[in-house]
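User: Just a sanity check before I run the rest of the batch. Below are the structure tokens for the first item. I only need the designed sequence back.
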């Protein structure tokens, strides 16, 4: 009896995972319609710089 419940639970779980996987694949970026809220930035690689970070010393210790 317990084995039957385990098998039924396993089948339900696998079915849920299969349905969820197929459902998430059907949604793609091409399906999204509408206008963008913001215009894309016109940036080139020469316009972008890496940030330099420095450690701050903790004087309380």
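Assistant: Here's the designed sequence for the first item:
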């Amino acid at each position: 009896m317990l084995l039957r419940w385990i098998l039924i639970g396993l089948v339900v779980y696998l079915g849920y995972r299969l349905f969820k996987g197929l459902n998430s694949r059907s949604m793609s970026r091409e399906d999204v319609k509408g206008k963008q809220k913001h215009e894309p930035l016109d940036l080139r690689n020469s316009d972008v710089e890496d940030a330099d970070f420095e450690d701050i010393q903790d004087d309380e210790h």
